[in-house]
Amino acid sequence: MKILYAHLSEEKFGMGGADHSVLNLISGIREKFQDEVYCVLNPGPLAAELRKKSIPVAEISRKKIKTLQTLRAFGRIFSSFKPDLVHSHHRYTTFLLDLFFKSKGIPILHTQRVETSDKKLLFRFGHFVTAVSDALRQILIARYNVPPDRVATVRNAVPSRPPDSRIVAELRERYPRREQQWFALCTGRFEEQKGHLYLIQAVARLPKADRERLKIFLAGEGPWEPKLKAEIERAHLGPYFIFLGYCPCIPEILALCDFLILPSLWEGLPRSVLEALNAGKAVLATKVSGTAEIIRDNQNGLLVPPKDSGALAKAICDFIHRPDELRRMGKEAQKSAELFSFDQMLLEYHGLYQKLSRDFGKSSKR
């Protein structure tokens, strides 16, 4: 089977969770099923990572002022590669494919990874759409009028790997832990969606004795980084936060930390939570769409309302004052990870690829 993957994301951003998910999906499908794959991406780190795996990539700018060049490039790729199916991972990319290439007799699959509410009249999904959570599937049906029989849930999953003990040892030497000190990780692109400002406000609300026992590692990059650093400085919270930048060694950072914090305002099915489950770490997260499908309150983590720094502060205190409960939730998190199998995700996607190819082939012969 020949699969064309398309993902023209914002060029100003580095590798985010969606980019990592696309990277793992493409490499996983090729390795597991020996399919021939080809990728259309904007220039950036995702294209570089795919090339490291010897996966062919065509780089196209997604700038809207260059739409005509983008369409011509897609046309050349369709003619030369002759895909059996196109899997798009970005709304703008799918919009172009649906509008200009849907009639070419090749199934177009769109994957929606995050909750959105804008551009309803411009939303297109090709022949079929997958949502990464049940909540997101219902949003696509109710908000974007996608027919229920044209959308399915295929939950996110991440490949599990054990942490590199050498890297963990280096991290422990670089960030020594005082007695009764707690380390937490917050990973995600620095932008409004991830709710970092509410985490900063929550730390400011903590009793001084609890704040002194806490160190939060912020892994990621993005346009809000200067704003977050300025807010931390304004609130005199510098000793309690460490900016790690783009961090490819999340399993090792999780091994260093006691729990994960995800204060998002909205989500799809967050990769960071799945990584924490794989590592056996309890999760403190906001109760938003897909996250609430992974975290069961007081079982494998704690859930608080979004945009509520007071509730977030209280939950942090609950974690650091109940170490036995934190460990119990960590064990439950490890068990929960079994429900989000990376191999199962690959099987579901590949089965859908085959079904769409069969269905589309039959309809084209009528």
Task: Give the topology.
Elements: E1 2-7, H1 17-33, E2 36-41, H2 45-52, E3 57-59, H3 67-81, E4 85-88, H4 91-101, E5 108-112, E6 128-131, H5 134-144, E7 151-153, H6 165-174, E8 182-187, H7 196-205, H8 208-211, E9 214-219, H9 225-234, E10 241-245, H10 250-256, E11 259-262, H11 271-278, E12 282-286, H12 291-294, E13 301-304, H13 309-321, H14 323-336, H15 342-365
Describe the structure.
The structure is a single chain. The chain is of the alpha/beta class. The protein folds into 2 domains: 2-157 and 341-365, Glycogen Phosphorylase B (Rossmann fold, 3-Layer(aba) Sandwich), CATH 3.40.50; 165-339, Glycogen Phosphorylase B (Rossmann fold), CATH 3.40.50.2000. Helix content is 45%, strand content 17%. The protein has helices at residues 17-33, 45-52, 67-81, 91-101, 134-144, 165-174, 196-205, 208-211, 225-234, 250-256, 271-278, 291-294, 309-321, 323-336, 342-365; strands at 2-7, 36-41, 57-59, 85-88, 108-112, 128-131, 151-153, 182-187, 214-219, 241-245, 259-262, 282-286, 301-304. Strand 2, helix 2 (45-52) and strand 3 form a beta-alpha-beta unit. Helix 7 (196-205) packs across helix 13. The longest helix is centred in the last third of the chain and has 24 residues, at 342-365. It starts with a strand and ends with a helix.
